[in-house]
Amino acid sequence: MGDRAGSIDGPVRGRSVRFRLLAIALLPMLVILPLLLGVAIYRWNARFDATLISKVNGDLTIAHQYLARILEKTGVQVRGLSLSFRFREVEEQETLSAVADLLEQSRKEIGLDFLYLVDAGGKVIASSPALKGAPRADWPIITSVLSGESPSTGIDIFTNDELAAISPVLADRARLDLVPTPNAVPTDRSTETSGMVVHAASRATAPGGGPAALVGGILLNQNLEFIDTINDLVYREASLPEGSQGTATLFLDDVRISTNVRLFEGRRALGTRVSAAVRSAVMGEGRTWLDSAFVVNDWYISAYEPLVDTYGKRVGMLYVGFLQKPFNDAKLETLLIIALAFIAITAATVPIFLRWAQSIFMPLERVTATIGEVESGNLSARTKLPASGDEIGRVAVHLDTLLDQIQERDRQLREWNEELNTRVRERTRDLELANLKLEATTKQLIMSEKLAAIGEITAGVAHEINNPIAVMQGNLDVIRSVIGADAEKAKVEFRLVDEQIHRISQIVTKLLQFARPEEYAGYVERHTPGSVVADCLPLVQHLLNKTEIRIVREDRASRLVLMNRTELQQVLINLIVNAIHAMPDGGTLTLRSYDADRDGVSGILIEVADTGIGMDVDVVEKVFDPFFTTKRRDGTGLGLSISQTLIKRQRGQITVESEVGRGSTFRVWLPEAD
């Protein structure tokens, strides 16, 4: 029943009528309407930005027309002067002073910064102000006029030396200290010394009748009247919203040489530079920039156009723009108003709809909740809805009736199930007890059979081994007598052979002791653990020579142990051999002995530690069981079991700690000798 309920739960909740009704009602308001509003706002924002760009483009057109008018007006004024009756009258007098006086008077009337008359050979005839040097005579507008072409006007870039040749005042006015500007192209220059000049020339006649050119110009560097006039024309009062401000700038290359942009109150941003992006687009590619741009210290809706000199080279830029922040604030305010209005309308209409839908949702939710409780195991749950004439009410009443029937059937099934479980538990308990008894009896029979076999085999082995031992011992005595005094040279070797023959006898005896421990008892002696360990190492040296194993010894025990020396040696050799086998690729074998108390009893602890392959938990739990071995062909599984028996006989304890891949440590604890 639980599985069926779980399978129904997903579709019932996933297709909730409440969910579908809410989706039908709220989808247009909360999804479609916001999407439409988003698209409308996006389109409005794009059109708004396009309108701003269109406006700044119109502003640039006005500024461009004003600059063109200045160029045209300057050319017309210079040409008018060259054709005037006064100029011809002065020329006919052939007096240079009179020409100079006329040029001075005319320069001031026209508003030029310099005005001079130059002949066809490039020699200055007269000038205003008085020239401090020889100005260039190969400007395109001069050469074209002298060659007979129509009067010419344009923009030219004068070096500081060229300006100084005309007037030191102009050279000083052109000089600007560069101000470090964020986002500008890096430069090593610290000063701008060139000047941008409105340059005009007209054909004239020199005193004496030769061809000449009348040349005039206006220096635009720091010409604040010029740039402020452009700003007043483009951005008249009330042409921008409150908080915004219009700006105009004239650039020589990327340096502001005339501007009403402010660095801070009271100081214009003269000497600052345009951003690298704008410079690349306008000066590098010759495009007109119509977009937002960072101007000195804020963002402006900006328009830049390149300025071309009389050589046809791009030499500067004309800029107009207005502060962007007030327009961004206006857009943000509009978006906030729309968002707040949408939220307010939604907050007012959704509760009204929910109240209208409550009469439908409440019975359905009651039915759904009841089904959920039944699925979770509460079979007594009911909708308890009053009978009504609509379809939902009739379904609720019918559901309660079905649940009553299901609860009754469930009660009967539970009673039958409990009775069956009781019988099964009784039979299972009887089988478990019988199985435990059978298992214990089987283990006991197997162990008894193995021990009996060992006893029988050991008796035969003892008989078969004792005879060769007697022969070996006898021949060893004969060898001593034959070699006589030379036997002293191999005294240690003879002693070791005697001890090992004796040890063979002891091993046979120990096998019998393991099989029939109650029939044997050994002789105990007092020993220092370090001496027993020292005697063990020569006996395993042949195994150590086969691998690269480093021996580390720590003999710190000051107490004596009371145990048969051969038995203790047998235990330690067994542990050392196992450690050597655990390190086939070499490692470190550590042998320690030190005083250690256990449960209030004084004793000695002997450790045999290796850095070998280690053992997992399952092997550690079985390592002292008789006949258990990990050496499939070479082991009998009796070594550690016999060692444990020997140690326990002396009221000692042998334990092991091991970790796979890091090695094992066997600890033998024996009580101190009385």
UniProtKB/TrEMBL annotation:
It is found in: Cell membrane. CDD domains: HAMP, HisKA. It holds the Pfam family sCache_3_3. Its main location: membrane. GO terms for cellular component: plasma membrane. Its EC number is 2.7.13.3. Residues 358-411 form the HAMP domain. It catalyses: ATP + protein L-histidine = ADP + protein N-phospho-L-histidine. Keywords: Cell membrane, Kinase, Membrane, Phosphoprotein, Transferase, Transmembrane, Transmembrane helix. It comes from the Bacteria. One of its GO terms (molecular function) is phosphorelay sensor kinase activity. Residues 460-674 form the Histidine kinase domain. Gene3D superfamilies: 1.10.287.130, 6.10.340.10, Histidine kinase-like ATPase, C-terminal domain. SUPFAM superfamilies: ATPase domain of HSP90 chaperone/DNA topoisomerase II/histidine kinase, HAMP domain-like, Homodimeric domain of signal transducing histidine kinase, Sensory domain-like. It is a multi-pass membrane protein. This is histidine kinase. It comes from Bradyrhizobium valentinum.
